[in-house]
Design brief:
Number of strands: 4
Shape: elongated
Order of helices and strands: EEHEEHH
Strand order of the largest sheet: 1-2-3-4
Radius of gyration: 17 Å
Number of domains: 1
Number of helices: 3
Largest sheet: 4 strands, antiparallel
Strand content: 15-25%
Length: about 120
């Protein structure tokens, strides 16, 4: 499986001075972002709701998920998950219930699921 490169982009809106600048979390490469062709909605994971303090992490409290990205990821997981060896093995071991797909960068990917963005 491919690995998404996650980053934060800062956008200003000089054509609309009343609109505040915004910070977005994206999985698009800097090469893709530098093409000036616009940012597809599917490439925006979500928006940071307020400026982050130095060293502050993105958390559910300061982040709003982009439903277009969420729908895309759920579609990818739904279509490719049934053919993914690790998910098949986990589902067989679970037998009944909910199989959570957790980002491996989480602090304790083998622990209980507490936060889902």
């Amino acid at each position: 499986m491919g690995k998404l490169q996650i980053g934060i982009i800062h956008l200003d809106f000089p054509e609309n001075p009343e609109e505040e600048s915004k910070d977005y979390v994206t999985c698009l490469s800097t090469e893709r972002l530098s093409r000036y062709a616009g940012i597809p909605s599917e490439g925006i994971i979500g928006q940071i709701l307020r400026p982050l303090e130095p060293g502050e992490r993105v958390t559910p409290g300061n982040f709003a998920a982009n439903t277009v990205f969420v729908d895309l990821m759920q579609g990818v997981i739904a279509s490719r998950g049934p053919q993914t060896k690790d998910l098949i093995e986990d589902a067989k071991r679970l037998a009944r219930g909910t199989l959570f797909v957790v980002d491996r960068r989480t602090r304790a990917p083998e622990g209980p699921v507490r936060e889902i963005l």
